[in-house]
Design brief:
Radius of gyration: 22 Å
């Protein structure tokens, strides 16, 4: 394959990297072992996976043509294979490839295994939809790759992205023990209330800045692309099922937090329990929905969730007919916690974190009545700058990652 055949890919790579800067990096950037042979970075569409790849190239290659970035949904792959690209890279002394959207390439797992086994001098960093599980595809790559999950921006990251406040993440146990000191330190730097409201409406996906007033339309379009393109690529769903998935999202958006009566829900969708649960859990993996369950999720053995939320508060603001404040608080807390913690539905209270800490989420007047006398129980309270005892400001949970 000659240079002319590669030119369109190289031109796209140069255009993309020309728009990248290193001013702000996502929380995951410094957690990745970039020296691994095969690195997989999963995440919802729009959370910044591509930017992170290009930032790593920009920071580590004085000559960017010593490596190569390509998106596998590029038209180039309609007439060329990924192995064509690998052969060209190997012949030109490139030792690392950065591959975007691998779930859009049918033989992605077999090809990555081939690279690992037959090209020992070549390493790969790839991104994929959060829908993709390690056992998807015909080849198990779990022993050959290191995988990471990138979530949307935390409230802490949003403040840094806006150049308002720059604070390191607060470890969860430290936050529980010393939340008063942490809150006092942060509120001295800025008034948080208006920034918190802004974050809830538009701060979860980094592309809000370039979108401006078009952000709600862009976000609705992103949801449509996930359902119409990413779901079929990974889950092998039919056109009819995809239409039912869209209807499911709208039904839940009108009722969140949704405590599902499954038979009624399946009747509305004209589907059965097996397919209905498959749709729900696919949307959970895609981070369009968040399923709250009383035991650990198992995507091979699906069961009824206790509650269904939208995946983050930004989705609420573009999909819900009216945003309920109580639901918005719970959605924010769940979104911030699930990035690095196990979140379950408890017998009492709203959320159980890491099977150790019980939380009730509410407004400033929230009391311990529902979780009184339960060890390791806390309130996450809104409209509060600084807490006291086991009453912790809700906004502060946005500083854990």
């Amino acid at each position: 394959m000659d240079a002319i055949e590669m030119q369109s890919l190289i031109n796209n790579y140069h255009r993309k990297i020309g728009s990248i800067n290193l001013r702000f990096k996502r929380y995951l950037y410094n957690q990745i072992n970039w020296d691994a042979r095969i690195i997989g970075i999963k995440g919802a569409r729009g959370v910044g996976k591509t930017t992170m790849l290009l930032q790593h190239i920009l920071e580590n290659y004085e000559d960017i043509d010593k490596t190569l970035y390509a998106s596998l949904d590029d038209f180039w792959f309609a007439t060329h294979s990924l192995l064509d690209l690998v052969e060209w890279a190997d012949q030109h002394g490139i030792t690392r490839l950065y591959l975007d959207e691998v779930h859009r390439y049918e033989q992605w797992s077999e090809t990555l295994k081939n690279i690992y086994d037959n090209y020992p001098d070549l390493s790969v960093v790839y991104t994929s939809s959060s829908l993709l599980l390690m056992d998807y595809g015909k080849v198990d790559l779990s022993r050959r790759q290191t995988t990471y999950m990138l979530y949307g921006m935390s409230f802490r990251e949003y403040l840094a992205f806006e150049d308002i406040v720059h604070v390191e993440p607060i470890p969860f146990d430290d936050l529980l023990q010393h939340h008063v000191q942490h809150a006092m330190r942060i509120v001295q730097k800025t008034k948080l209330a208006s920034h918190f409201e802004d974050y809830l409406s538009h701060g979860y996906y980094p592309f809000y800045r370039e979108s401006g007033v078009d952000y709600p339309a862009r976000l609705r379009e992103t949801v449509s692309v996930v359902i119409e393109n990413d779901l079929p690529a990974v889950e092998n769903m039919t056109f009819e099922t995809i239409q039912k998935v869209k209807k499911l999202v709208m039904i839940i958006s009108e009722r969140v937090p949704f405590e599902p009566k499954m038979s009624e829900l399946w009747r509305q969708l004209a589907t059965n329990n097996e397919l209905g649960l498959r749709m729900l859990y696919s949307l959970d993996k895609a981070q369009i929905l968040s399923l709250l369950t009383s035991k650990a999720k198992n995507y091979k053995f699906l069961y009824k969730p206790d509650k269904i939320y939208l995946g983050n508060t930004n989705l609420m603001h573009v999909l819900c007919p009216q945003v309920n404040k109580g639901n918005e608080r719970e959605t924010f807390f769940m979104t911030q916690m699930m990035a690095e913690h196990d979140v379950k539905s408890p017998l009492k209270g709203d959320f159980m974190i890491d099977d150790r800490f019980l939380f009730e989420v509410g407004g400033r007047k929230k009391t311990f009545e529902q979780i009184a006398d339960i060890p390791n129980s806390f309130l996450a309270v809104d409209d509060t700058e600084i807490g006291q005892g086991n009453r912790i400001p809700l906004w502060l949970f946005g500083f854990t990652y």
